[in-house]
C-alpha cells in the first residue's frame, strides 16, 4: 500500500512536465494520421470515379473534415515541444517564416478543395486534390525527417 502511494505521488508530480511535450507531439501526429486517412479515402474515390459517377456528397464530407482541421496541428509546435518521439526537423523552429508559408500553402489548398467539393465538379476536385497533396509533400520535404 505504502509503496503504491509513493509511486502514485511520483507519477502525478512527474506527469505534467512530461505530458506537456508528449501531449503536443502526439496531438500533432494524430492530426497528420487523420489527414493521411482522409487523403487515402479521397484519392481512392477520385481514382475509381469519373465526372458522371463521382459521389460528390461523399467526397465533400471528407474534404470538409480536412479543411476544418487544417489549422489545428500548428498550435502544437511551441518551443518546448521539440524532441524525442518527433519527426519534426529543427527547421520548424529555426525557420518559422518558411514554416508559416508552408502552412499557408496547405490551408489555402485545403480551403480550395473544400470549395471545389461543394460545387460537385469532378474536374475541379481533381485539380484541387492534387494541390493539397503537393502542399503536404512540400512541407514534409523541408520540415519532416
Ligand atoms: C506545414 C507543414 C506540414 C503540412 C502542410 C503537412 N504536414 Fe504532415 N507532418 C509535418 C511534420 C512536421 C510532421 C512530423 C510531426 C512530428 O513527428 O512531430 C508530419 C508528420 C506526418 C505524418 C506522420 C505522423 C505520425 O504517425 O507520426 C503523416 C502521415 C503526415 N504528416 C501526413 C500529412 C498529410 C496527408 C498532409 C496533407 C493533407 C500533411 N501531412 C501536411 C508537417 C506537415
UniProtKB/TrEMBL annotation:
BP terms from Gene Ontology: electron transport chain
Post-translational modification: Binds 1 heme group per subunit.
Residues spanning the signal sequence: 1-20
Sequence positions that bind heme c: 136, 139-140
Pfam family, one: Cytochrom_C_2
Keywords from the UniProt entry: Electron transport, Heme, Iron, Metal-binding, Signal, Transport
InterPro entries, alphabetized: Cyt_c/b562 (IPR010980), Cyt_c_II (IPR002321), Cyt_c_prime (IPR012127), Cyt_c_prime_subgr (IPR015984)
GO CC terms, sorted: periplasmic space
Gene Ontology molecular-function annotations: electron transfer activity; heme binding; iron ion binding
Protein name: Cytochrome c
Organism: Neisseria animaloris
